[in-house]
Design goal:
The structure holds two protein chains of two kinds.
Chain A (H helix, E strand, L loop, with lengths): L2 E9 L2 E9 L2 E6 L6 H8 L6 E6 L2 E2 L5 H7 E4 L21 H5 L16 H13 L5 E5 L7 H16 L3 E5 L3 H7 L2 E6 L2 E4 L7
Parallel strand pairs in A: 3-8, 3-9, 6-7, 7-8
Antiparallel strand pairs in A: 1-2, 1-4, 4-5, 9-10
Chain B lengths: L5 H18 L4 H30 L3 H21 L8 H27 L7 H32 L1 H9 L4 H4 L1 H21 L7 H8 L4 H33 L19
The chains are: A alpha/beta, B mainly alpha.
């Protein structure tokens, strides 16, 4: 079973943060904007300089190459970046499989131009792009923010299944109903610190 | 060669003043800039003329080295001041200056030792103009390439980081930015080589012909200079873009835009 340990993690605008997440577990993080949630996720993916310890299955992030770490601990940012014009260029060696279908994409989606996609389509494709890496831990920054209810449901179902298969989910959400649906634990981030939601202040 | 008198130069200066007057109608700042630039050209070139005269008389190595160092440092400052987003701290000056130093000096030394074979090798009549032409062009190439690199990475930070997040290496995430920067730095000299003789008569060759040199001799020198400039600019641009792209990432391959300064307000 995978385990992600975050100890005494500090970066610009947040910390110290201590969290321990296990495989097949979904931890939801809510909190006011500016509380440091996105910065925390970026630090866990080792995208920003930080202090403190990160370890996956007992192996420190410092002992793993940064590219390997990010393949195992994958971040889905609130706004995705696309470095090529065609969707297919972002999915090297991938045929549109079952996961594409489950998120409501037709078979020709890979031939489309990124420019012509809606923000919701981009968000769902960015999730598929990340899942293609088969990360052990997923850091999700509001993965359903731009989605209609039907697509939100599709994304939640796909992520729930990914979680059941052993992945660790750290899911930032502002939607308390969604948190109630998907979370095993609910934590709140405020002024750069995290604490369990049932300790007084809710989101 | 027909010598120019002060009156001849004054006549040309009235043309520049006329241009400045005309530019007043566009913007006061523009005409001010024209006048200041023209004054700078006059003063700087007269000074350098006097210095070169003295340098040719006392062709001693330490003085030539001093002159060359001042030229490199001035060019480095110029490269830095042309950056919209430069590297913060020492790197802002260092990346351009070191690349320029490495490429211009090595190409000049090669030309003096292996091609022109002057005695002594640092003969200032050859060494200084050669270095000057190399520096001037390398400076342009590096300034354009660095500006393009830092600006391009800033604008495309989301695309670059998207690749980093998915576990791509910094080298691979930067591929198109590096290519863009190197290409922009080298395009002026590539264009100059392609258009030379058809669209434009290069300045050095024109100067030699005006001074009475046989055209074919002047052309041979011009070809040599073009090649040297191309190599110098190319090497300098490659070095600067290589060092710059490395500086944009840290040891954990994180994009470090905090290492760039914010642009100067206009």
């Amino acid at each position: 079973m995978s385990q992600l340990r975050i100890e005494n993690l500090r970066g610009i605008g947040f910390g110290p943060v201590d969290l321990s997440l296990a495989g097949s577990e979904c931890l939801c993080l809510s909190g006011p904007s500016g509380a440091g949630k996105s910065r925390l996720l970026r630090a866990i993916a080792d995208l920003d300089p930080h202090e403190g310890q990160l370890a996956l299955d007992g192996i420190s992030s410092a002992a793993v190459s940064p590219t390997d770490w990010r393949r195992r601990v994958g971040l889905l940012p609130a706004e995705s970046g696309w470095w090529s014009e065609r969707v297919a260029d972002h999915f090297p060696g991938t045929a549109p499989g079952e996961a594409f279908e489950r998120l409501g994409f037709a078979a020709d989606i890979l031939e489309q131009a990124v420019e012509h996609l809606s923000s919701g389509e981009r968000q769902r494709l960015a999730l598929l792009r990340l899942l293609a890496n088969r990360p052990q831990a997923l850091l999700l920054d509001e993965p359903t923010a731009n989605l209609d209810p039907a697509n939100t449901e599709r994304v939640e179902a796909l992520l729930a299944e990914t979680c059941r298969r052993g992945a660790i989910l750290l899911w930032v959400s502002h939607d308390l109903n969604q948190i109630a649906r998907v979370a095993d634990q609910h934590w709140v981030m405020k002024n750069g610190r995290v604490h369990p939601a049932d300790q007084g202040q809710a989101a | 060669m027909i010598q120019l008198s002060a009156i001849d130069l004054a006549l040309a200066a009235t043309l520049v003043l006329g241009l400045a007057g005309l530019s007043l109608r566009v913007h006061r700042d523009l005409s001010r800039q024209i006048v200041i630039a023209a004054l700078r050209t006059t003063v700087q070139l007269l000074l350098v003329g006097l210095i070169l005269k003295a340098l040719f008389q006392y062709a001693e190595f330490p003085w030539i080295l001093l002159m060359a160092s001042i030229m490199v440092l001035a060019a480095g400052r110029e490269v830095m001041s042309r950056q919209e987003r430069r590297f913060a701290g020492w790197w802002g000056f260092g990346v351009g200056t070191v690349s320029m130093f490495l490429s211009s000096f090595s190409v000049t030394l090669f030309a003096l030792h292996a091609i022109i074979q002057t005695t002594p090798w640092y003969e200032p009549q050859y060494a200084i103009p050669l270095l000057g032409m190399l520096l001037g062009n390398t400076m342009n190439g590096i300034a354009i390439a660095m500006d393009r690199l830092t600006q391009g990475v800033w604008l495309r930070r989301r695309e670059i980081e998207a690749q980093i997040m998915l576990g791509h290496s910094a080298v691979s995430a930067m591929r198109s930015q590096r290519y863009d920067a190197v290409r922009s730095g080298m395009i002026p000299i590539i264009n100059a080589m392609a258009a030379a003789g058809i669209v434009s008569l290069p300045g050095m060759m024109t100067g030699q012909i005006l001074a009475g040199a046989p055209p074919v001799e002047a052309v041979k020198y011009q070809i040599l200079i073009m090649f040297l400039i191309a190599v110098g600019t190319g090497l300098g641009t490659l070095a600067a873009v290589w060092a710059g792209s490395r500086r944009l990432f840290d040891g954990r391959q994180r994009l470090r835009l905090d290492r760039l300064s914010t642009p100067n307000p206009r």
